[in-house]
Amino acid sequence: MKFYLILACICLFSGTAFACIWDRDTIRHEAEGIPDILETISGRFDRYPDLYFEMRRDRLLPLIEKSPQDLALYDDIAVAYDRLGDSDTAIKWMEKKKVQLDLNPDPVHEYRYLANLGTFYAHRWLKTGGDLNDLTDIDTATELIEKCIELNPEAHFGREKYQLKVLKWIQSHSGPDGNSPIVKPDGMVTKTEKGAPPSEAVQGFSGLITLGAAWESVDIFEALAYALQNEGRHHIAWLASLRVNELVKDGKQSLTGNPTEGIHYNLVDDRKPLNTYYQAIRTEAQKWQKNRTSFIEQKLKRGEHPDTHPGFWNDFREKTSPPQPPLKIKKAEVAYGIAWICLVLGIITVLAICIMALKRKLRKQRY
Known about the structure:
disordered N terminus; mainly alpha
């Protein structure tokens, strides 16, 4: 078990699952919202080449010398270093930010400082091999993320709650039966977990994938599949499980050595159309990502960057479009949406009736 855990951490070097980081890209992504669940599963969401972060870092380093009180610059520089694989330097930049925070307290930047620093410590643990005999960085990361959640529980679409679950899972190594607690029904995504609604879990894990760095994490996609299953979205859960299978075939591993064979594998009868659809959306997403990356790199090599050139994306053209989902997925998602609308309307109706009854009671008492 220990061998597989360490091997898995090495495999996750380029695709770590703990990324609730804050920089200018995060703010933009937060404004745009989490991509559609099908885009999350297929990989059709924004990602950037190393040169993107190198140019940002090199541009901002001279600026921060002139404006050391600009707290946002510390986040941008630190995240750039972390994205480039240098978590040690990223941590040092957060230490520099802390010095400025002590001089000029700011609750927003205090939260961002904690979120970034906790994530960088988790990344450093993974990138240095994930020594299970030394969880110092994971313990530090857990403490920092707990503090940032206390300051801002709903930031990052609530995904820091799920980042914290991943960290605590690492601390426990594995479940009592050797399976990952991330994906066990009594683990991360149970319906009754402290009253958290299932949709919060889907949102949290989707955020770790699209706004973080869990695109190549077997465990996070496994957890997403369970969360979708708990919502009754069996067909989408099956698509998420296909992503798990794809990652395993590509040599990625769960932190427990094996992905759990979950209940969502057995609740879809006609799998062939879904399998065909999954291959279609993955193929299209790969072409879309290749076209987007090529466009970005050409612009960057000409000295243009989205940070400094407002018209950077003006001449970008999408050459492909996502395939339409099978009718069964459309019907299921529509039914799911209607169910939630009915639930909300039901709650509103009950509240309205209670308010009216209370008003009548007060009126009677008055007269």
